[in-house]
Specification:
There is one protein chain. By secondary structure, the chain is an alpha/beta fold. Helix content is about 25%, strand content about 20%. Helix 6 crosses helix 7. The two termini are about 25 Å apart.
C-alpha cells in the first residue's frame, strides 16, 4: 500500500513519510523486497556514498535522486543538513526514502536521523538491511561463529565521532569480550587498534581478514595476522572501505572460500 499525504501536527502543511531503508552491502540480490518496492514508488531518494550503482538502478526513473554521500575527508553534506533536507522533502512529497548502505541502525546514523525526524513531527519508519559486518565475511567464506572456534562475536566501529558520548572504545574490554571481532571502518586506525588488542592479550598469530567492497564484484580479501596485518596493508596499499574480522574463524576461509556466491555486475545507469 502506498502511503498518502497527511496533515502535520499544526494542520498547515501536508506531510509525507520518510523510510530509512538499508540498501545492504552492495550485492543487489541482498536488498530486501520491502526496500525494493519503496525504491520503485518513492518520490524522493536521498542516498549515501556506499550504496551500489546496481541498487540505485532500481530507483524509479521519475524519482528525484539526491546524493548525500559521506566519505572520510570529503563529506558532501553535514549531518544536520541531511536531517533538514529530509524534513523539507517530507513536507512536499508522499514517500521519501533515505537509502543507506548496509543497515540504517548499524553504524549508519539511522538512529540520529530518525530522532531528528520524530522531533520535527515527520512520520518515519526503518526498513532494516543486511549489514556488511555479516555479509562481507560470509562472501569471503568466513563464518563469524562456529561451534569449534567461536561462540561469541562483537561488532565495533574503528572510526569514532568527535565529541561523542564517551572518549574512546575500550579495546581491552573488546579483546576479552568475544572470540570474533568485526570492525567497521577500521582501516585508517588499524595500527592503533591492532596495538591495543595485542596489549590486551590477543596473540600476535591471531588471524585477521580485511574484506574490501564486500559482496560486490570487486570484492578483495586480505588475510594476515595481528602481527603482520599493518605491514601487509601498507605493502599492498589496501584501502577502505573494508570490514576487518579478527579471530580463529578467519582460518576457515581456506576451506570455505570456494563456496563464495557469484556476484554478477549488471548493466545500470546511475541516477
Amino acid at each position: 500500500m502506498v502511503p498518502t499525504m497527511m496533515p502535520c501536527s499544526s494542520g498547515a502543511l501536508p506531510v509525507g513519510k520518510v523510510y530509512l531503508v538499508g540498501a545492504g552491502p552492495g550485492d543487489p540480490g541482498l536488498l530486501t523486497l520491502k526496500g525494493k518496492s519503496l525504491l520503485e514508488c518513492a518520490d524522493v531518494v536521498v542516498y549515501d556514498a556506499l550504496v551500489s550503482p546496481a541498487i540505485l538502478a532500481m530507483v524509479n526513473p521519475r524519482t528525484e535522486c539526491i546524493d548525500a554521500g559521506k566519505r572520510r575527508g570529503r563529506h558532501s553534506r553535514a549531518q544536520s543538513e541531511i536531517a533538514q533536507l529530509l524534513i523539507a522533502k517530507a513536507r512536499d512529497a508522499a514517500i521519501v526514502v533515505r537509502l543507506k548502505g548496509g543497515d540504517p541502525f548499524m553504524f549508519g546514523r539511522g538512529g540520529e536521523e530518525m530522532t531528528d525526524l520524530v522531533a520535527a513531527g515527520i512520520p518515519v519508519e526503518v526498513v532494516p538491511g543486511v549489514t556488511s559486518g555479516i555479509a562481507a565475511p560470509a562472501y569471503a567464506g568466513i563464518p563469524l561463529t562456529h561451534r569449534a572456534h567461536s561462540s561469541s562475536v562483537i561488532f565495533v566501529t574503528g572510526h569514532e565521532a568527535a565529541g561523542k558520548y564517551r572518549p574512546d572504545i575500550d579495546w581491552t574490554a573488546i579483546a576479552r569480550a568475544a572470540e570474533t571481532i568485526a570492525v567497521y571502518m577500521g582501516i585508517h586506525n588499524l595500527a592503533y587498534i591492532v596495538g591495543k588488542l595485542m596489549d590486551a592479550g590477543l596473540a600476535p598469530e591471531t588471524p585477521v581478514a580485511l574484506i574490501r567492497w564486500g559482496t560486490c564484484p570487486e570484492q578483495t580479501d586480505l588475510i594476515a595476522t595481528l602481527a603482520t596485518i599493518v605491514e601487509t596493508v601498507e605493502r599492498q596499499q589496501f584501502a577502505a572501505p573494508a570490514i576487518a574480522v579478527i579471530g580463529r574463524v578467519v582460518a576457515l576461509r581456506e576451506v570455505l572460500a570456494g563456496c563464495r556466491p557469484v556476484v554478477l555486475s549488471p548493466h545500470y545507469d546511475k541516477p
